[in-house]
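The data layer described in this paper is built around a simple, fixed record for each protein. Because each token names a local backbone shape, the row as a whole describes the fold. We quote a single record here, exactly as it is kept in our systems:

***
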Amino acid sequence: MSRTIDYGNLMHRAMRSLIQNVLTDVQSNGLPGEHHFFITFDTKHPDVDIAPWLSDRYPGEMTVVMQHWYDNLRVTDDGFAVTLNFGDNPEPLYVPYNAIKTFVDPSVEFGLRFETQDDDDEDQDILEDDEEDITVEEVPEEPRKDAEVVSLDSFRK
């Protein structure tokens, strides 16, 4: 086996650490200004903890929004827990960082996308020869429009 530095996995760790740092700041100080997050995660990840009705409704992945209302944000080294409102039903959830597929803050046109989630062998991943892709996305700037009210009922099943 040839020994190489697995830059892809190192980037994944660094980006997950960035998410942890951002969420830790939000836990302590709240969301500043217009910042808000769209976080997409793998609902089948073994360490994800969501209500059964949510995992039934979102059997592969789910996107949550942290913006106007969230409660009980707790950030750990492995993931974060938060209570979000789903149609006037507050639901706690826990998401490990390695279940996150995308993390986007549209207020500043910042986004991360994790192409693969292969962290099974964390002790050897620095020297493995597996390549993983990570994309740091910059959302193209669009002209600002007046706020538009959209009913979420049209998206519910």
